[in-house]
Amino acid sequence: FDGEDFQMFEKDLPGHNTTGFAPTQKIGDLPKETCETINNSWGFNLKDNHHKSKKELVQYLVKASGYGANFLLNVGPMPNGKIQPEHQAALKEVGEWLKIYGETIYSTQGGPLTERNWGVTTQKGNKVYVHILNWQDETLTIPRLSKKVVAAKLFKNKTALKFNENDFGVNIQIPKPQQDEIDTVVELELK
Questions:
Q1: What's the maximum distance between 2 C-alpha atoms anywhere in the chain?
Q2: Scanning 6, 134, 157, 189, which has its CA 20 to 30 A from the CA of 25?
Q3: How confident is the model at residue 72 (pLDDT cuts 50, 70, 90)?
Q4: Quick one: which H or E segment has residue 72?
Q5: DSSP string of 130-182?
Q6: Shared domain check, 131 and 73
Q7: Which long-range contacts does 176-182 make (Cβ < 8 Å, 24+ apart)?
Q8: pTM for this prediction
């Protein structure tokens, strides 16, 4: 990628080619950015009524962070220069989510684990944030990390979680009432 400042993935996550825009999705060492729209149009479109839900937008943001990519969320202004009310509402919802979980996104790196069926990880210092986007049951098993896990807690309320490490990985127990349908974030402290 000679002469480039960053590598962009348009309407896609790094390494995926779900849109067909980049058939050779080689991921380089440059900073990464993934771009998505709130609906399906880059500009204002009266006929485009597919406005992504809070869940879709937050999960896209979280996945981009899990890949270590910046997330650019496009809004197409109306002819009068204003942002559509539906888009304003969506941005506000994502902003409210970030007020609670921003620490697990801002200034983090892609986590030590690649994307899994259940979600992604981000990392900052000695903390790994496990973003669980798709639940299977009350126990999540992740591969062992390079450092020992000394604590596991639910990020939103700092509730300690039961966990154990063995040869197969780290088993984290999260009771169903504590699970979030959008993103359950577990903070792991490493030593």
A1: 60
A2: 134
A3: confident
A4: strand 69-74
A5: EEE-S--SSEEEEPPPSS-EEEEEETTT--B--EEEETTEEEEE--GGG--SS
A6: no
A7: 176/138, 178/154, 179/132, 179/135, 179/138, 180/156, 181/55, 182/54, 182/55, 182/58, 182/59, 182/97, 182/133
A8: 0.86
Give yes or no: residues 89 and 173 share one domain.
no
For helices 54-66 and 85-101, what crossing angle results, to 10°?
50
pLDDT confidence band for 46 (50 / 70 / 90): confident
Q: How many of the other CB atoms lie within 10 Å of CB of 24?
A: 5
Rounded to an integer, what distance in angstroms lies between the CA atom of residue 44 and that of residue 8? 22
d(CA 56, CA 60): 6
| Position 1 in a domain | no
Per-residue model confidence as pLDDT tens digits over 136-167: 899 999 999 999 999 999 999 999 999 999 99
- Name the DSSP class of 22: -
The three-point CA angle 86-32-25 to 5° equals 100
Total number of domains in the chain: 2
- Do residue 34 and residue 122 come from a single domain? no
Residue 18, domain member (yes or no): yes
